[in-house]
Amino acid sequence: xxxxxxxxxxxxxxxxxxxxxxxxxxxxxxxxxxxxxxxxxxxxxxxxxxxxxxxxxxxxxxxxxxxxxxxxxxxxxxxxxxxxxxxxxxxxxxxxxxxxxxxxxxxxxxxxxxxxxxxxxxxxxxxxxxxxxxxxxxxxxxxxxxxxxxxxxxxxxxxxxxxxxxxxxxxxxxxxxxxxxxxxxxxxxxxxxxxxxxxxxxxxxxxxxxxxxxxxxxxxxxxxxxxxxxxxxxxxxxxxxxxxxxxxxxxxxxxxxxxxxxxxxxxxxxxxxx
Length: 274
What we know:
Elements: H1 2-26, H2 31-38, E1 45-55, E2 62-68, E3 71-76, E4 83-88, E5 94-99, E6 106-112, E7 115-120, E8 125-130, E9 136-141, E10 149-151, E11 156-159, E12 164-168, E13 175-180, E14 182-183, E15 186-187, E16 191-197, E17 200-205, E18 210-215, E19 221-226, E20 243-249, E21 254-259, E22 264-271
Parallel strand pairs: 1-19
Antiparallel strand pairs: 1-22, 2-3, 3-4, 4-5, 6-7, 7-8, 8-9, 10-11, 11-12, 12-13, 14-15, 16-17, 17-18, 18-19, 20-21, 21-22
């Protein structure tokens, strides 16, 4: 009889242990942990500090901006007023200027080796110039609008006002790929002027005071720069349009920004994100 009781007790303990085990396996994770896992990572937002300001032509509707060897190359827009120009940084003096035909609305520019590539807005036409004398070397076409353009040393990177960045072969100027820019899962539209800086694409977002810092591999926005109140009320002429224009001095690690019809161009440093 004692052996039977002992056996029954062993079976009961085993059944109880199994129930506890499988019950634990099926128990849901704590609600707090599940909610935490679903929360997206907060994207940092950098502020800015003005290091120095420079004169900028208040009649220049800035669409593209590039820094090289102490000088600025600038592409400007508006029908009948679009130009490609070489500008002295310190004084804002225009050293060289080429006017586009009045049917073209000039957009972004970039320097590729000894050439300058310039886009146009709705004309679906791009121009390639000799960097030294601004002589027109060729024209090319693309299927979308043209907004901003830069390069990463291997391919040209172009925006068209959508959430897409298009990759172009720098020799054939044909599309070889694209990526959609997103903030988490939400597409970021109105990508405008572009600059490639330290492995990331910096993009003006049209009609905002923000610049997106974008991973070229994933298209994800990794950080924002908030340039609210960059141009102070007492510095305004009343004609200013939106923030637009990013240039980078890689040798001096200097970041320059300006806007369309702005009387000033700024060298800024980023401050800690909030």
